[in-house]
Inverse folding.
Protein backbone atom coordinates (compact mmCIF):
# COMPACT_ATOMS: atom_id res chain seq x y z
CA UNK A 1 0.00 0.00 0.00
CA UNK A 2 1.39 3.40 -0.98
CA UNK A 3 1.88 6.36 1.30
CA UNK A 4 -0.93 8.26 -0.47
CA UNK A 5 -3.29 5.35 0.15
CA UNK A 6 -2.31 5.33 3.83
CA UNK A 7 -3.08 9.06 4.10
CA UNK A 8 -6.38 8.54 2.29
CA UNK A 9 -7.33 5.76 4.69
CA UNK A 10 -6.51 7.90 7.72
CA UNK A 11 -8.54 10.77 6.28
CA UNK A 12 -11.54 8.52 5.67
CA UNK A 13 -11.30 7.05 9.16
CA UNK A 14 -10.99 10.48 10.71
CA UNK A 15 -13.95 11.81 8.75
CA UNK A 16 -16.08 8.88 9.91
CA UNK A 17 -15.18 9.75 13.50
CA UNK A 18 -16.43 13.30 12.89
CA UNK A 19 -19.75 11.82 11.79
CA UNK A 20 -19.90 9.85 15.04
CA UNK A 21 -19.20 13.05 16.94
CA UNK A 22 -21.93 15.03 15.21
CA UNK A 23 -24.39 12.20 15.86
CA UNK A 24 -23.57 12.41 19.56
CA UNK A 25 -24.20 16.14 19.95
CA UNK A 26 -27.04 15.63 22.42
CA UNK A 27 -28.42 18.39 24.58
CA UNK A 28 -27.71 18.70 28.25
CA UNK A 29 -28.96 19.01 30.94
CA UNK A 30 -32.36 18.03 29.49
CA UNK A 31 -32.00 14.74 27.66
CA UNK A 32 -33.74 13.66 24.45
CA UNK A 33 -36.66 11.33 25.14
CA UNK A 34 -36.64 12.03 28.86
CA UNK A 35 -39.95 11.60 30.64
CA UNK A 36 -41.65 15.00 30.97
CA UNK A 37 -42.68 14.27 34.56
CA UNK A 38 -39.10 13.40 35.48
CA UNK A 39 -37.83 16.54 33.73
CA UNK A 40 -40.38 18.67 35.59
CA UNK A 41 -39.47 17.04 38.90
CA UNK A 42 -35.71 17.43 38.47
CA UNK A 43 -35.33 20.61 36.41
CA UNK A 44 -38.17 22.73 35.12
CA UNK A 45 -40.69 22.53 37.94
CA UNK A 46 -40.95 25.34 40.48
CA UNK A 47 -39.23 24.15 43.64
CA UNK A 48 -42.15 25.13 45.86
CA UNK A 49 -44.47 23.06 43.66
CA UNK A 50 -42.10 20.10 43.89
CA UNK A 51 -41.99 20.57 47.66
CA UNK A 52 -45.79 20.56 47.83
CA UNK A 53 -45.97 17.36 45.77
CA UNK A 54 -43.44 15.64 48.02
CA UNK A 55 -45.32 16.72 51.15
CA UNK A 56 -48.58 15.35 49.75
CA UNK A 57 -46.84 12.07 48.90
CA UNK A 58 -45.47 11.79 52.44
CA UNK A 59 -48.85 12.57 53.96
CA UNK A 60 -50.65 10.11 51.68
CA UNK A 61 -48.12 7.34 52.30
CA UNK A 62 -48.40 7.70 56.07
CA UNK A 63 -52.19 7.69 55.89
CA UNK A 64 -52.10 4.54 53.76
CA UNK A 65 -49.88 2.82 56.33
CA UNK A 66 -52.25 3.92 59.09
CA UNK A 67 -55.20 2.39 57.23
CA UNK A 68 -53.35 -0.88 56.61
CA UNK A 69 -52.23 -1.28 60.24
CA UNK A 70 -54.48 1.02 62.31
CA UNK A 71 -54.28 -0.95 65.57
CA UNK A 72 -50.50 -1.24 65.55
CA UNK A 73 -50.08 2.46 64.78
CA UNK A 74 -52.51 3.50 67.50
CA UNK A 75 -50.75 1.29 70.06
CA UNK A 76 -47.45 2.83 69.03
CA UNK A 77 -48.82 6.31 69.63
CA UNK A 78 -50.74 5.63 72.86
CA UNK A 79 -48.56 3.13 74.73
CA UNK A 80 -45.02 4.33 73.88
CA UNK A 81 -43.08 7.58 73.81
CA UNK A 82 -41.98 7.02 70.20
CA UNK A 83 -44.01 9.95 68.83
CA UNK A 84 -42.64 12.41 71.40
CA UNK A 85 -39.08 11.20 70.77
CA UNK A 86 -39.54 11.46 67.01
CA UNK A 87 -40.84 15.03 67.16
CA UNK A 88 -38.02 16.01 69.52
CA UNK A 89 -35.46 14.70 67.01
CA UNK A 90 -37.14 16.55 64.14
CA UNK A 91 -37.20 19.75 66.19
CA UNK A 92 -33.48 19.48 66.93
CA UNK A 93 -32.79 18.80 63.26
CA UNK A 94 -34.79 21.83 62.12
CA UNK A 95 -32.89 24.11 64.50
CA UNK A 96 -29.58 22.64 63.34
CA UNK A 97 -30.61 23.11 59.70
CA UNK A 98 -31.22 26.81 60.29
CA UNK A 99 -27.78 27.13 61.86
CA UNK A 100 -26.17 25.43 58.86
CA UNK A 101 -27.99 27.73 56.44
CA UNK A 102 -26.79 30.80 58.32
CA UNK A 103 -23.21 29.48 58.26
CA UNK A 104 -23.30 28.77 54.51
CA UNK A 105 -24.67 32.22 53.76
CA UNK A 106 -21.94 33.76 55.88
CA UNK A 107 -19.33 32.01 53.70
CA UNK A 108 -21.03 33.19 50.50
CA UNK A 109 -21.29 36.76 51.78
CA UNK A 110 -17.63 36.75 52.78
CA UNK A 111 -16.73 36.04 49.14
CA UNK A 112 -18.93 38.88 47.91
CA UNK A 113 -17.65 41.43 50.40
CA UNK A 114 -14.31 42.32 48.81
CA UNK A 115 -12.21 45.43 48.30
CA UNK A 116 -12.70 47.81 45.40
CA UNK A 117 -9.77 46.34 43.44
CA UNK A 118 -11.37 42.89 43.22
CA UNK A 119 -14.72 44.41 42.33
CA UNK A 120 -13.04 46.39 39.56
CA UNK A 121 -11.42 43.22 38.20
CA UNK A 122 -14.81 41.52 38.05
CA UNK A 123 -16.39 44.39 36.16
CA UNK A 124 -13.42 44.69 33.80
CA UNK A 125 -13.52 40.97 33.02
CA UNK A 126 -17.26 41.16 32.36
CA UNK A 127 -16.88 44.12 29.99
CA UNK A 128 -13.97 42.46 28.19
CA UNK A 129 -16.03 39.32 27.68
CA UNK A 130 -18.85 41.38 26.21
CA UNK A 131 -16.41 43.06 23.84
CA UNK A 132 -15.36 39.68 22.48
CA UNK A 133 -18.99 38.76 21.82
CA UNK A 134 -19.56 42.17 20.18
CA UNK A 135 -16.71 41.45 17.77
CA UNK A 136 -18.33 38.20 16.70
CA UNK A 137 -21.76 39.72 16.10
CA UNK A 138 -20.41 43.05 14.80
CA UNK A 139 -22.45 45.08 17.26
CA UNK A 140 -21.58 48.19 19.25
CA UNK A 141 -22.99 46.95 22.56
CA UNK A 142 -24.33 43.56 23.63
CA UNK A 143 -27.77 43.44 25.29
CA UNK A 144 -27.93 43.72 29.08
CA UNK A 145 -30.92 41.43 29.65
CA UNK A 146 -29.98 37.74 30.08
CA UNK A 147 -32.40 36.39 27.46
CA UNK A 148 -31.32 38.93 24.82
CA UNK A 149 -27.64 38.38 25.62
CA UNK A 150 -28.03 34.62 25.16
CA UNK A 151 -29.72 35.32 21.84
CA UNK A 152 -26.71 37.43 20.85
CA UNK A 153 -24.34 34.59 21.77
CA UNK A 154 -26.39 32.13 19.72
CA UNK A 155 -26.38 34.60 16.84
CA UNK A 156 -22.57 34.79 17.05
CA UNK A 157 -22.32 31.01 16.70
CA UNK A 158 -24.73 31.05 13.77
CA UNK A 159 -22.72 33.79 12.05
CA UNK A 160 -19.44 31.93 12.43
CA UNK A 161 -21.08 28.73 11.18
CA UNK A 162 -22.39 30.58 8.10
CA UNK A 163 -18.90 31.87 7.36
CA UNK A 164 -17.52 28.33 7.47
CA UNK A 165 -20.30 27.05 5.20
CA UNK A 166 -19.69 29.79 2.61
CA UNK A 167 -15.96 29.18 2.56
CA UNK A 168 -16.33 25.39 2.41
CA UNK A 169 -18.66 25.76 -0.58
CA UNK A 170 -15.75 27.14 -2.61
CA UNK A 171 -13.48 24.16 -1.95
CA UNK A 172 -13.13 21.15 -4.22
CA UNK A 173 -13.00 18.72 -1.28
CA UNK A 174 -16.47 17.16 -1.31
CA UNK A 175 -15.89 15.25 1.93
CA UNK A 176 -15.05 18.48 3.73
CA UNK A 177 -18.18 20.14 2.33
CA UNK A 178 -20.37 17.22 3.38
CA UNK A 179 -19.10 17.09 6.96
CA UNK A 180 -19.25 20.86 7.38
CA UNK A 181 -22.86 20.78 6.21
CA UNK A 182 -23.71 17.92 8.58
CA UNK A 183 -21.99 19.68 11.46
CA UNK A 184 -23.85 22.91 10.63
CA UNK A 185 -27.22 21.13 10.67
CA UNK A 186 -26.61 19.84 14.20
CA UNK A 187 -25.42 23.24 15.40
CA UNK A 188 -28.40 25.07 13.89
CA UNK A 189 -30.81 22.51 15.36
CA UNK A 190 -29.44 23.10 18.83
CA UNK A 191 -29.49 26.87 18.35
CA UNK A 192 -33.16 26.68 17.30
CA UNK A 193 -33.95 24.61 20.40
CA UNK A 194 -32.25 27.14 22.68
CA UNK A 195 -34.05 30.05 20.99
CA UNK A 196 -37.35 28.25 21.37
CA UNK A 197 -36.71 27.95 25.10
CA UNK A 198 -35.91 31.66 25.31
CA UNK A 199 -39.08 32.63 23.43
CA UNK A 200 -41.21 30.64 25.86
CA UNK A 201 -39.59 32.12 28.96
CA UNK A 202 -39.90 35.35 30.88
CA UNK A 203 -37.18 37.52 32.38
CA UNK A 204 -35.51 35.92 35.38
CA UNK A 205 -37.12 32.51 34.87
CA UNK A 206 -35.11 29.34 35.23
CA UNK A 207 -35.86 28.52 31.58
CA UNK A 208 -33.56 31.39 30.50
CA UNK A 209 -30.71 29.83 32.41
CA UNK A 210 -31.70 26.39 31.17
CA UNK A 211 -31.34 27.56 27.57
CA UNK A 212 -27.71 28.44 28.22
CA UNK A 213 -26.97 25.33 30.25
CA UNK A 214 -28.72 23.16 27.69
CA UNK A 215 -26.36 24.21 24.90
CA UNK A 216 -23.83 21.45 24.25
CA UNK A 217 -20.77 23.57 23.54
CA UNK A 218 -18.33 20.79 24.56
CA UNK A 219 -19.43 18.39 21.84
CA UNK A 220 -19.42 21.13 19.22
CA UNK A 221 -16.00 22.42 20.28
CA UNK A 222 -14.64 18.88 20.17
CA UNK A 223 -16.12 18.30 16.71
CA UNK A 224 -14.78 21.60 15.35
CA UNK A 225 -11.28 20.77 16.56
CA UNK A 226 -11.56 17.28 15.08
CA UNK A 227 -12.70 18.77 11.77
CA UNK A 228 -9.62 20.98 11.64
CA UNK A 229 -7.35 18.09 12.65
CA UNK A 230 -8.77 15.65 10.09
CA UNK A 231 -8.59 17.95 7.07
CA UNK A 232 -5.56 19.97 8.21
CA UNK A 233 -3.46 19.08 5.16
CA UNK A 234 -6.19 20.11 2.71
CA UNK A 235 -7.42 23.32 4.33
CA UNK A 236 -6.83 26.70 2.77
CA UNK A 237 -5.93 29.70 4.88
CA UNK A 238 -9.52 31.00 4.71
CA UNK A 239 -10.96 27.63 5.75
CA UNK A 240 -8.50 27.30 8.63
CA UNK A 241 -9.30 30.85 9.74
CA UNK A 242 -13.05 30.15 9.60
CA UNK A 243 -12.69 27.03 11.76
CA UNK A 244 -10.46 28.92 14.21
CA UNK A 245 -13.11 31.64 14.43
CA UNK A 246 -15.77 29.04 15.20
CA UNK A 247 -13.55 27.43 17.85
CA UNK A 248 -12.95 30.84 19.47
CA UNK A 249 -16.69 31.44 19.53
CA UNK A 250 -17.31 28.11 21.25
CA UNK A 251 -14.61 28.98 23.80
CA UNK A 252 -16.41 32.21 24.67
CA UNK A 253 -19.70 30.32 24.85
CA UNK A 254 -18.03 27.92 27.29
CA UNK A 255 -16.89 30.83 29.44
CA UNK A 256 -20.35 32.37 29.41
CA UNK A 257 -22.11 29.13 30.22
CA UNK A 258 -19.91 28.41 33.22
CA UNK A 259 -20.46 31.99 34.41
CA UNK A 260 -24.22 31.63 34.09
CA UNK A 261 -24.02 28.34 35.95
CA UNK A 262 -22.20 30.04 38.82
CA UNK A 263 -24.93 32.70 38.89
CA UNK A 264 -27.51 29.93 39.02
CA UNK A 265 -25.87 28.35 42.06
CA UNK A 266 -25.75 31.71 43.83
CA UNK A 267 -29.40 32.40 43.07
CA UNK A 268 -30.52 28.93 44.12
CA UNK A 269 -28.54 29.15 47.35
CA UNK A 270 -30.10 32.51 48.15
CA UNK A 271 -33.62 31.23 47.45
CA UNK A 272 -33.01 28.01 49.36
CA UNK A 273 -31.74 29.93 52.37
CA UNK A 274 -34.63 32.38 52.47
CA UNK A 275 -37.31 29.72 51.98
CA UNK A 276 -35.75 27.43 54.56
CA UNK A 277 -35.89 30.26 57.06
CA UNK A 278 -39.50 31.07 56.14
CA UNK A 279 -40.50 27.43 56.55
CA UNK A 280 -38.34 26.50 59.54
CA UNK A 281 -39.63 29.10 62.00
CA UNK A 282 -43.33 28.05 61.76
CA UNK A 283 -42.27 24.38 61.77
CA UNK A 284 -40.17 24.87 64.92
CA UNK A 285 -43.08 26.59 66.67
CA UNK A 286 -45.60 23.95 65.52
CA UNK A 287 -43.35 21.01 66.43
CA UNK A 288 -42.64 22.49 69.87
CA UNK A 289 -46.38 22.85 70.44
CA UNK A 290 -46.97 19.23 69.40
CA UNK A 291 -44.34 18.00 71.86
CA UNK A 292 -45.90 20.00 74.70
CA UNK A 293 -49.51 19.17 73.84
CA UNK A 294 -49.06 15.56 72.72
CA UNK A 295 -51.33 13.35 74.79
CA UNK A 296 -53.04 10.50 72.97
CA UNK A 297 -55.70 10.18 75.68
CA UNK A 298 -57.17 13.57 74.75
CA UNK A 299 -58.23 12.34 71.29
CA UNK A 300 -61.81 10.95 71.07
CA UNK A 301 -62.43 7.35 70.10
CA UNK A 302 -64.23 8.11 66.85
CA UNK A 303 -63.57 7.27 63.20
CA UNK A 304 -63.33 9.76 60.33
CA UNK A 305 -63.35 7.96 56.97
CA UNK A 306 -62.13 4.84 58.73
CA UNK A 307 -59.32 6.64 60.58
CA UNK A 308 -59.13 8.03 64.09
CA UNK A 309 -58.41 11.74 64.70
CA UNK A 310 -55.20 10.68 66.46
CA UNK A 311 -53.80 9.06 63.31
CA UNK A 312 -54.79 11.99 61.10
CA UNK A 313 -53.31 14.55 63.49
CA UNK A 314 -50.03 12.68 63.94
CA UNK A 315 -49.69 12.12 60.20
CA UNK A 316 -50.28 15.79 59.45
CA UNK A 317 -47.90 16.92 62.20
CA UNK A 318 -45.15 14.59 61.00
CA UNK A 319 -45.54 15.87 57.41
CA UNK A 320 -45.29 19.47 58.61
CA UNK A 321 -42.19 18.64 60.69
CA UNK A 322 -40.54 17.23 57.56
CA UNK A 323 -41.18 20.40 55.51
CA UNK A 324 -37.68 21.96 55.94
CA UNK A 325 -35.99 18.75 54.86
CA UNK A 326 -38.28 18.40 51.84
CA UNK A 327 -37.60 22.01 50.80
CA UNK A 328 -33.88 21.24 51.01
CA UNK A 329 -34.38 18.03 49.01
CA UNK A 330 -36.24 19.77 46.18
CA UNK A 331 -33.47 22.35 45.69
CA UNK A 332 -30.58 19.91 46.06
CA UNK A 333 -32.17 17.58 43.49
CA UNK A 334 -32.10 20.28 40.82
CA UNK A 335 -28.63 21.54 41.73
CA UNK A 336 -27.11 18.05 41.61
CA UNK A 337 -28.92 17.27 38.35
CA UNK A 338 -27.50 20.42 36.75
CA UNK A 339 -24.03 19.57 38.04
CA UNK A 340 -24.07 15.96 36.83
CA UNK A 341 -25.46 16.83 33.40
CA UNK A 342 -23.13 19.74 32.70
CA UNK A 343 -19.85 18.12 33.65
CA UNK A 344 -17.63 19.64 31.00
CA UNK A 345 -14.41 21.58 30.79
CA UNK A 346 -13.74 22.89 27.30
CA UNK A 347 -13.51 19.96 24.89
CA UNK A 348 -13.59 17.44 27.75
CA UNK A 349 -16.97 15.70 28.09
CA UNK A 350 -17.38 13.88 31.38
CA UNK A 351 -20.87 12.44 30.93
CA UNK A 352 -20.98 8.66 30.59
CA UNK A 353 -22.49 6.89 27.63
CA UNK A 354 -20.93 9.07 24.92
CA UNK A 355 -19.00 7.79 21.92
CA UNK A 356 -17.28 11.11 21.37
CA UNK A 357 -14.16 10.20 23.34
CA UNK A 358 -11.97 8.40 20.76
CA UNK A 359 -8.28 7.89 20.08
CA UNK A 360 -6.08 10.06 17.92
CA UNK A 361 -6.42 8.57 14.46
CA UNK A 362 -2.71 8.80 13.67
CA UNK A 363 -1.42 7.46 16.99
CA UNK A 364 0.55 4.21 16.53
CA UNK A 365 -1.03 1.10 18.01
CA UNK A 366 1.84 0.62 20.46
CA UNK A 367 0.96 3.98 22.04
CA UNK A 368 -2.71 3.06 22.54
CA UNK A 369 -2.33 0.55 25.35
CA UNK A 370 -4.24 2.60 27.92
CA UNK A 371 -6.72 0.79 30.15
CA UNK A 372 -10.09 2.32 29.33
CA UNK A 373 -13.07 1.22 31.42
CA UNK A 374 -16.65 2.40 31.59
CA UNK A 375 -17.38 4.75 34.45
CA UNK A 376 -20.06 2.97 36.45
CA UNK A 377 -22.19 4.50 39.16
CA UNK A 378 -20.84 3.71 42.61
Amino acid sequence: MTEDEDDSGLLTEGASEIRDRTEDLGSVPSQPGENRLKQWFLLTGARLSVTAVLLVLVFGSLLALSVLRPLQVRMLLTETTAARTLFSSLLSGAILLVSIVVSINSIVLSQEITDIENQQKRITASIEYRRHIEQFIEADVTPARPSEFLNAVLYAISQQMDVLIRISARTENEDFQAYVQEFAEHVEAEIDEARSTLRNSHLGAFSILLAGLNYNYSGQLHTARALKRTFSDDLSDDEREAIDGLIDTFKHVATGREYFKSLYYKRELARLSSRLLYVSLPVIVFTSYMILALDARLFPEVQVLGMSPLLITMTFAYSVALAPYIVLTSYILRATTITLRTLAAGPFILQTGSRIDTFDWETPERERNWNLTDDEDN
The beta strands are 344-345, 348-349. The longest helix spans residues 237-293. The radius of gyration is 28 Å.
